[in-house]
Amino acid sequence: MNQSSLPSLPSLLGVFAHPDDESLLAGGVLAQHHAAGARTAVVTATWVPGSRRAPELAEALAVLGAGAPRLLGYGDARNPEAAPGQPRLVDAPLDEVVGRLVTHLRSFKPAAVVTHDAVGQLTGHPDHVRTHQVTLLAVEAAAHGCLYPEAGRPWQVSALYAATHSESGVGLLGPLLERVGKSVLAVDDTLVTTHVDVTPWADIKWAAVLAHRGEVIRERSLPGILARLSEAERRQIICFEQFTRIGFSLTSAAADRLTA
Questions:
Q1: What residue ranges in the chain does DSSP mark as E strands?
Q2: Going by DSSP bridges, is the β-strand pair 112-116/70-74 parallel, antiparallel, or unpaired?
Q3: Nearest-CA neighbor of 24 among 237, 245, 253, 178?
Q4: How far apart are CA 121 and CA 111, in angstroms?
Q5: N or C terminus: which one in the chain shows less Cβ crowding within 10 Å?
Q6: 170-174, 208-212, 229-233, 245-249 — which is least confidently predicted?
Q7: What confidence score (pLDDT) does residue 258 get?
Q8: d(Cα 226, Cα 125) in Å, to the nearest integer?
């Protein structure tokens, strides 16, 4: 599909826990929105500028057309090198983390936001769960001028989505993750509200994943697992993205669906 035939899509902000989550979970949708001329950006809750994963994140976001990294600067629950001297995301004061994200929401002014689901994205990583919780609170808080007034003028997001995997949609990922000793947490099919075929943007999505070179070489990381598959098997996994629409007060036509 060429760019001229793409529909108008809303501005989109991704909020994810780690570098590479954006590419794996919503890389296709981010690339799709960028190709349609929509503004896109990504906030990453953990790791800091100057860390080894920051340049890889910058490269991945450039591939996706999602601008420069926006790092909240907290530590990874399972990797102390992410932010030396800083609290882990899961230990940081909730009010502080929410306030930092509200600043980005009010600055970027997205129509739609996408983040992790409540179960923590297949493996239940505590940073994924915390990012989901923080994003829900920040999206609501951003609309109220009396909350975090120092973070800028109020902004009301029109649509909020959680990237997820349904029980029937896990497919090849299930046995692949179990083979390296990881849990597989999927949601009931009825909780998935939006299915997006991102095949036209799969090559861009995969290039963004490959930008996270430090993860690609790891045996148990999802980028590493995907890199060892045949192209046909890999495309079965990366060409479809699933989301749950999270309901709250909506005021814009952009809230109708993630893709127009």
A1: 12-16, 40-46, 70-74, 112-116, 159-164, 194-197, 240-246
A2: unpaired
A3: 237
A4: 23
A5: N
A6: 245-249
A7: 53
A8: 19
